[in-house]
Design goal:
Rossmann fold; single chain; 21% strand; alpha/beta; two-stranded antiparallel ribbon
Length: 274
């Protein structure tokens, strides 16, 4: 399987026009002929890309099952063009939507990690509003919807507020990279326009949330709050007692694979006539 994965060549899609145009890299695994299950769509977290452990494992699962798999790098991430500093939820949502529309699967399962969970929830809203592939299910890993207004803004220090006001961004040490995390005023302001935890979220599909209880970035109470906003959906919330934010250990990956397979089974059952 490793040769199959490593030989995949990225494709590029231009999203936006004029000065806003950027080349978005994507890795698309086609479904095997006759395989009718939904395409798996990987949505990365902030500063993560489509070559991360969970993304590669999801693609491996798709190869094993004969399913399609779509991965992309947001602008300013991985192999994609564009500046990271220009990134906002609206911009990255536009890119994810463009890639899904370009590949045009009939049905999709959105698999979102951290910020990717927020983008998955916004995608569900946009696909319902604008039309597009049918949403068969979601698997959200340590989802961070509304993280700018819920987790960052309330905890800003005076010097960070000053930096935002004077420089338009502030930096924060990252435990995952020698480079600091950069949060821009544009990201925070745009985040307020993309809030999903301000009312009922109707995805119209089963949702499985995986959340570590030792997550230092997104407290597990945030996952519980998200569930409260999904009253109309079939929601499973799995807590991993010793799990961190990344949830990339072999046991965590096994839970991810199981969750995705469960969504595939339920979507296949719903497709069958009574």
């Amino acid at each position: 399987m490793s040769d199959q994965l490593s030989n995949a060549q990225p494709q590029f899609l231009t999203v936006g026009e004029g000065e806003a145009a950027r080349e978005i890299a994507m890795l698309v695994r086609p479904a095997q002929a006759g395989y009718g299950a939904p395409a798996l769509v990987w949505l990365s977290g902030y500063r993560s890309d489509m070559s991360g452990t969970k993304a590669v494992e999801l693609d491996g699962l798709a190869a094993e099952l004969g399913a399609a798999c779509i991965r992309l790098d947001y602008s300013g991430h991985g192999l994609s063009g564009g500046s990271f500093g220009d990134g906002t939820i609206s911009r990255w949502l536009e890119e994810a939507l463009a890639v899904i529309r370009h590949v045009a699967p009939e049905r999709v399962i959105l698999v979102g990690s951290s910020m990717g969970g927020w983008i998955a929830l916004r995608l569900a809203q946009e696909l319902a509003r604008q039309g597009g592939p049918k949403l068969a299910g979601m698997v959200l890993i340590a989802p961070a919807p509304d993280f700018t207004s819920e987790l960052i803004e309330p905890n800003l220090k005076a010097k960070e507020r000053k930096s935002l006001a004077e420089r338009g961004y502030f930096e924060e040490r990252s435990q995952y990279s020698p480079e600091p995390n950069i949060y821009t005023r544009a990201l925070i302001e745009d985040g307020r326009e993309n809030r999903v935890l301000d009312g009922i979220i109707e995805t119209g599909c089963p949702v499985h949330i995986l959340q570590g209880m030792k997550d230092a970035d997104v407290p597990h109470a945030h996952a519980m709050k998200l569930v409260e906003h999904l009253p109309a959906d079939d929601v499973v919330l799995t807590f991993i007692r010793d799990g961190d934010h990344r949830l990339s250990r072999p046991g965590d990956i096994a839970l991810l694979v199981s969750a995705v397979k469960g969504i595939i089974r339920s979507s296949t059952n719903r497709q069958m006539p009574a």
